[in-house]
Each structure stands twice: as C-alpha cells, then as structure tokens.
Specification:
single chain, 428 residues, alpha/beta, 2 domains, 6 helices
Length: 428
C-alpha cells in the first residue's frame, strides 16, 4: 500500500526572526507539531473534492521576498493596511487615530502583549477541520493585531490589502487577529490580490474574538491570479449578544479554499454568513463553513451561492452543530448553485447536527441551470443572447452582493463579477 503523503520538511524551515520571542516560540512549537503531518487525500472527508488540486511542492516552501513596496493606494474612503508577501508595510498603510483602538504589527508588540497574543492564537479554529491553518502558525513572518477597547467604534472601514508579488515561486502567510471588546464596532475588509506569474501559495488566517455586545462586519474578497493557490481560514468566537456578519466573495483559481468557523458561546449571540463564488475554465473553489451553537438563544443565518462554468468545480460544505444545551436556537442555511455548462461540477453538502430538542432549524440546497424560458423572453424583447445570459446570472447572486455594507466594495465587486460572467459567455 502506498504511504500517505506528508508535509515536506521544507515547509517547516523557520522564517524571519524579527518577531517577539513569545511569537517565535509559538511558531517553533507549531512547526514541531507539523513534522510528518499527513496531507489530505480523497479519503479525508472534508478534502474529498479538493485534495487532488492541492500542490505543496518544495519550490513553494520558500518565503517570498519582501521588497518594501506595494501597488497604488486605494482611492476609497476608509483606513488602509497593506501586506506585501505576508509582511506588513507601514509606509504604505494609513492607520486610524481613534481612542480605544490599537493597531500594531506583530513585529512591534512588546513581550507582554506578544505573550498574551501567543496564548490566544489558534483558539478559534478546530485543528482537524482546518488543519492547514496551523501551517500559517508555523510560518507567519508578521501579522496585524487589532484591539478595540470596550465601547470603541471605528468610524470607517479598515481595508487590509494582502498583495502577493509572484516574482518567483514561494509562499506568503498573512495573519490577522481582531480582539473586539465589549460593545465595540468594526468593519474589516480583506482583499487578496496578486502580481506576477510564478506559481505561489498564499496561506492566510484571520481570527476574531467578540466580547459581549461587540459588532463585527467582515468582508473578504479573494481575487488573485491564476498562478496562486489560496488556502484561507477564518475563526470566530462570540460572547453574549455579539453580532458577526460575514460577506465572502471568491473568484476561482488553480486551488482556492476557505474554512470559516464560528462558535456562538453565550446566549444572544448571532451571526450571518453570506458567500458568493464564481469559477470558469478549470478553476476550483472550496468553501467549508461550520457554525457551532454552544449556548441557548442564539441565531445564525447562512446563504451561499456558487456559479460554475466550462470545466470548473465549486464545492460547498456547510455544517451547523446545535449542542445539547443550545435550546431555543434558530439556524437557517441555504445553498443555491448555478451550472453554466455541462462540463462544470458543483458538489454541495449542507449538514445539520442537532442535540437539543427545542430549536428551529432548516437547511436546503439546489443545483440548476439558467431558465430557458427567461432567456427566450429577454431575447424576444431585443436583448442580445449573451447579455441575457449575463443579466440572469448576475441576478442569481445580486441579492447577496447588494448586502455588502461597504459601498465602494459593493460597487467594485459588482463590476468584477459582471466582467467575469461576461467573459464566460464570450468564450462559450
């Protein structure tokens, strides 16, 4: 029997030593724990459809060089932080100067704060469900630490632009940690983009902890080039009466994966997860979400929509787990999928695991094609067939795009999606 593949030791080579000692110690511990780690295969349930797309060759193990520069600044209202190949670029960033809000590089933390952070990193993510997130913990060279004091409110969105410069093969490990204090508020926009054509790996992890009554809005855009494998993970832990809103938009690539895990740990916590994925050519995108209802009187609502064209492949696996003590839980999950060609594939697996007896839960999934009668109606009214296809496809996802609360992001996303879909029908 052929032995299971393991993570190459080349990926465990220590990176930059510019971090505080407690974070260096954490990184070393995670690296030691990953030695001989089996890589996912088709027999690994939550990687069944994606393992064959994962390519962790030794050439990707080298950390991408940091040149200390970045692309043009965004001309949008809000604050900006720029990562270049996984390392923060202070001179390209525009920090908010707001009482009660601390934003620092991992590299600039004092030992006391770094020690506190080291104890909290990875506590929001299940190591088995998001096993490759630990690779980030073994390799991150920098990160962004955001702390909101009780009652603190960030008046404008904070944009974190993670730019990968694929001038050579290698990997980058952006890391973000957000500690939202009691009744604080923040909107965080993560945008992942790339330059260059060499094969690269981006392994990105973002963690949120929400204290009582905190309100966090997370917008995540994955729009890197065709040469970029992206493995992303987002972990969330919520306390009483906190609210977490997530809006994820993903464009396919050679291998794209996002694990989103939310734990509702105290009564009154609620979350809303929205997601849109589009794939074409031979692209692949895999969304895995988990919502843990740990406490009673918590609400969750999840809506994901996938569009696949050509010979591309989209995957959605959503799991809601209602624990025994989570009485009076309300949970709804919807996954709708649109196939634009006979060669495309979408695999969906909505899951409900309920151990409480006084709950309201529902889930559903559909897979279909564009309605021929609707296309005929538009064409008969003088609309070009390609434009009719584009209009109907955009209508399928526009409901979720319109819910993105940041106007500049919403408008940019609509333009990108429209161009992507138009290109699909041009090539059809």
């Amino acid at each position: 029997m052929k032995p299971a593949p393991t993570l190459s030791s080349a990926f465990l080579t220590p990176g930059s030593q510019s971090l505080p000692q407690p974070l260096l110690d954490l990184r070393s511990q995670r690296g030691t724990a990953l030695a001989d780690m089996p890589l996912p295969t088709r027999k690994t349930e939550n990687w069944k459809y994606s393992s064959r797309h994962l390519k962790l060759s030794d050439e990707l193990a080298t950390a991408l060089p940091v040149k200390g520069k970045s692309g043009p600044a965004l001309a949008v209202p809000g604050y900006h932080v720029v990562f270049h190949n996984g390392v923060m670029v202070p001179e390209a960033s525009d920090y908010p100067d707001v009482d009660g809000i601390t934003i620092q590089r991992f590299a600039d933390l004092d030992d006391s704060l770094a020690s506190e952070l080291a104890e909290r990193l990875d506590n929001t993510l299940d190591a088995k469900a998001a096993q490759l997130a630990r690779l980030n913990s073994a390799r991150f060279e920098d990160g962004l630490y955001i702390r909101l004091a009780p009652e603190a409110v960030l008046d404008q969105p904070l944009f974190v632009i993670s730019e990968t410069d694929a001038c050579s093969s290698g990997s980058a490990y952006p890391r973000i940690y957000v500690d939202a204090g009691r009744h604080s508020q923040i909107t965080l926009v993560e945008e992942y983009i790339s330059l260059g054509d060499e094969p690269v790996l981006v392994n990105a992890v973002t963690e949120f902890t929400l204290a009582d009554g905190a309100q966090v809005t997370s917008v995540r855009l994955s729009a890197e080039g065709e040469n970029v494998q992206h493995l992303g993970a987002t972990g969330v832990r919520q306390q009483a009466h906190s609210r977490f809103d997530s809006h994820c938009v993903g464009f396919g690539g050679p291998m794209r994966r996002h694990d989103l895990q939310v734990r509702l740990e105290q009564s009154g916590a609620n979350c809303r997860l929205n997601g849109v994925v589009v794939t074409q050519g031979k692209q692949h995108y895999d969304n895995h979400t988990v919502i843990e209802h740990v406490a009673p009187h918590c609400d969750s609502e999840e809506t994901y929509r996938n569009i696949a064209a050509d010979q591309s492949h989209a995957v959605f696996n959503g799991r809601i787990h209602i624990h025994q003590d989570a009485q009076k839980s309300n949970a709804n999950m919807s996954n709708k999928n649109l196939l634009l060609s006979t060669g495309a594939e979408i695999d969906t697996k909505p899951e409900l695991e309920i151990y409480a007896d006084d709950v309201k839960c529902a889930h559903g999934a559909t897979i279909g094609q564009l309605d021929k009668q609707s296309i005929f109606y538009l064409v008969s009214r003088g609309v070009d067939r390609r434009e009719a296809n584009t209009l109907l496809t955009m209508a399928f996802i526009n409901e979720l795009v319109q819910q993105i609360p940041v106007e500049s992001v919403r408008e940019t996303t609509q333009v990108r999606l429209n161009q992507f879909i138009e290109q699909t029908f041009e090539e059809a």
